[in-house]
Amino acid sequence: MTGKTIRGLRAAALAGTLLLSIGQAFAADPIKLGVLEDQSGDFAAATIGKVHAIQLAAEEINKAGGIDGRPLELVIYDTQSDNTRYQEFMRRVLQRDKVDVVFAGFSSASREAYRPIVNQFDGLAFYNNQYEGGVCDANMIVTGAVPEQQFSTLIPWMMEKYGKKVYTLAADYNFGQISAEWVRKIVKENGGEMVGEDFIPLGVSQFSQNIQNIQKAKPDFVVTLLVGTAQASYYEQAASANVNLPMASSVNVGQGYEHKRFKPPSLKDMYVTTNYIEEIDTPASKAFFEKFKAKFPSEPYVNQEAENSYLAVYLYKQMVERAKSTKREDLRKEIAKGDVCMDAPEGKVCLDPKSQHMSHTIYLAHVNADHSIDFPKVWQDIKPYWLGEAGCDLTKNDPSAQYTPSNPPPKP
Amino acid sequence: MDVGTLAFSALYQFGDAFAFLVLSACGLAVIFGMMGVINLAHGEFIMCGAYVTVSATHAGLPLPLSIALGALVSGLVGVLVERVVIRHLYTRPLDTIVATWGLSLIATQGTLILLGSTLAGVGTPFGSFQVGGYSYSVYRLVLFGAAVAVLVGLYVLFNATRFGVMARATIQVPHMAAALGVDTRLVYSLTFALGAGLAGLAGGLYAPTMTLVPTMGTTFIMEAFVTVVVGGADVFLGTAPAAAVLAVVKATMTSLYGQLFGQIGLLLAVIIVIRVLPRGISGFLLRERA
């Protein structure tokens, strides 16, 4: 008996009853997946579902025989919507728990807080969240949607339907600032005009002045890039002041299910580009939603981040089974082939080798006056093209940096 | 844009900021000013009021009654907290900070575990009205009215009722009040309940306009503490003028430079006030009067 199998048996014995039920099929070491997500604090409403989605996927995979015969073991910590917790727990999962892969992060601030630690220990992290784009880092795989997928579809569509004057209301940190830059760029490219921009510190919940600023600027629609539960108070306050303008967003509804939390019609005529929400009416989406509700009946909403997290576990399984290894470089060789794809609840998705970001089906979700959702448009297979076109190519080099339209990768 | 419209909009923004500062601070000010207890669980009493208000409204109660119920329940929770925890710490004021902070953590996390990450809202009543080119929420005027009513009510309570006289006597010289037959323990208990109830009232009043989450109390906390620090220990001579000054600072800075500078303005005002008037505005006014 080799040392490895003895260790494996000991680990299985320690893991005890939990693993006993799925039992003797696993002779090998488990594959450890670290989960760092906010289960309390300001972001919890949007992110508890991510943990549940990962648990659902892990249970399904273990029932079906694990990853390449090895069980998948989750190491879960609550990061409490606190960036320093991310840094602490990222060190802990990589150094002490020695996980093979980490799924981590909601806010972009938290991602940028832990990313240097992943680089330092040369780990592999999945960021399963929509964000402002631009992370060119071989240690990161991003399954969330990025601005070229969400804004280059949404903003031109809105400008065509409602008009060319745009007002942006954004959270005042890296996500909001860089997303607002994208909106500015796309509005200009399409011959529109920015009539105003307001940046709101995280945690602010009173919006009377901003509501007045918007009324003064008279835009045709408002782009709301508000983050966290405190800022979500804007919709109720804007509705009660009768602002009555269409809204466009990359984060609302698909993330914080505001249409379920607020009384109709405060989110009337909100348009969101998202790669998944539970209202999507396809057989794959319905099947996923039903599995989710069967395991977590009290889940308030299955949002796009839950779907991203769920499919990411399967994507990781596929990569490990193809590479016959959990080593990051072996997995990246599979990504470099450009055919790491799967049929997810939203539709077919593929990993882009240059940026390690993912292609998505983008749904335009429209909130009606009674807060029901319809989908005026669906864009199939939208690629995360910007990083690759701008000059990020992780198959050749790894700058481990984040780029923006005004700060693109250096030309070779 | 004519002058009238501009003046009204400035006044509206001032009133809005004033109401938020007064309502979020008065509960804290009562407990700190009358009892010397720094209540770090203040935000959680606000959350408690908001949650009770919204749950009662969902259960079919009309909103004004729900808000009253929210304040009442917070007040009762306040009595309980005073009896179980605070009462034993009157001689150890620094320890009350730690104890109430612990309570706030327990309340936030307990609510998250028991009631989930969010509660559905109830919607803001009364709709909107139009002045010049702008439309405004009617409910915001109700909030301003409520803030003024709370200040007047507190003034009457402490200066024109038997409870007010006993409370002030107890706060000034506790053993003398006790010797004269005042049940000082009851007075402390009621004062703490009043502070908690006022926090609950603030939560109930703002509940229809906000996201309902276990951490919602924290969005009131900075404004509450800033107002109490600037105002000093006296509720009427402190909280009201402090809220007025800070509302002007906040509304002006926010309208000129945005929300971030509104917050910076508030904190700068605090730094200046505690440098120049270490005992707050009320300390300054009382010294002048004496």
Query: Mind telling me which CATH architecture of the largest domain in chain A this is?
Result: 3-Layer(aba) Sandwich
Our estimate of the beta-strand percent of chain B is under 5%
Level-1 CATH class name of chain B: Mainly Alpha
From the 3D coordinates, which CATH architecture of chain B would you assign? Orthogonal Bundle
Can you identify the CATH class of the largest domain in chain A?
Alpha Beta
Keywords:
heterodimer; A: 412 residues; alpha/beta; Rossmann fold; 2 domains; five-stranded parallel beta sheet; 15 helices; 16 strands; globular; B: 290 residues; mainly alpha; ABC transporter involved in vitamin B12 uptake, BtuC; two-stranded antiparallel sheet; 2 strands; 77% helix
Quick overview:
The complex is a heterodimer of chains A (412) and B (290). Chain A is α/β, with parallel strands linked by helices and 412 residues long.
Task: Please provide a written account of the structure.
The complex is a heterodimer of chains A (412) and B (290). With 412 residues, chain A is α/β, with parallel strands linked by helices. Chain A folds into 2 domains: 247 residues, Rossmann fold; 114 residues, Rossmann fold, CATH 3.40.50. Chain A is 41% helix and 20% strand. Chain A has 15 helices and 16 strands. Chain B is mainly α. Chain B has one domain: ABC transporter involved in vitamin B12 uptake, BtuC (Orthogonal Bundle), CATH 1.10.3470. Chain B is built from 12 helices and 2 strands, in the order ααααββαααααααα. In chain B, α1 runs parallel beside α5, α9 crosses α10 and α10 packs antiparallel against α11. Chain B is globular and about 65 Å long. The model of chain B has no long low-confidence stretch (mean pLDDT 87). Classes of the chains: A alpha/beta (412), B mainly alpha (290). Chains A and B meet through α3, β8, α8 and α10 of A and α1, α4, β2, α5 and α10 of B.
Give the SSE map:
The complex is a heterodimer of chains A (about 400) and B (about 290).
Chain A: H1 3-15, H2 17-20, E1 31-37, H3 44-63, E2 72-78, H4 83-96, E3 101-104, H5 108-120, E4 125-127, E5 135-136, E6 140-142, H6 147-162, E7 165-171, H7 174-189, E8 193-200, H8 208-217, E9 221-225, H9 228-231, H10 233-240, E10 247-249, H11 258-261, E11 270-274, H12 283-295, H13 304-323, H14 328-336, E12 341-344, E13 347-350, E14 360-367, E15 373-382, H15 385-390, E16 401-402
Helix pairs in contact in A: 3-13, 4-5, 6-7, 13-14
Chain B: H1 3-35, H2 42-58, H3 63-84, H4 93-115, E1 128-131, E2 134-137, H5 138-160, H6 162-172, H7 174-179, H8 184-206, H9 218-231, H10 235-257, H11 259-276, H12 280-289
Antiparallel strand pairs in B: 1-2
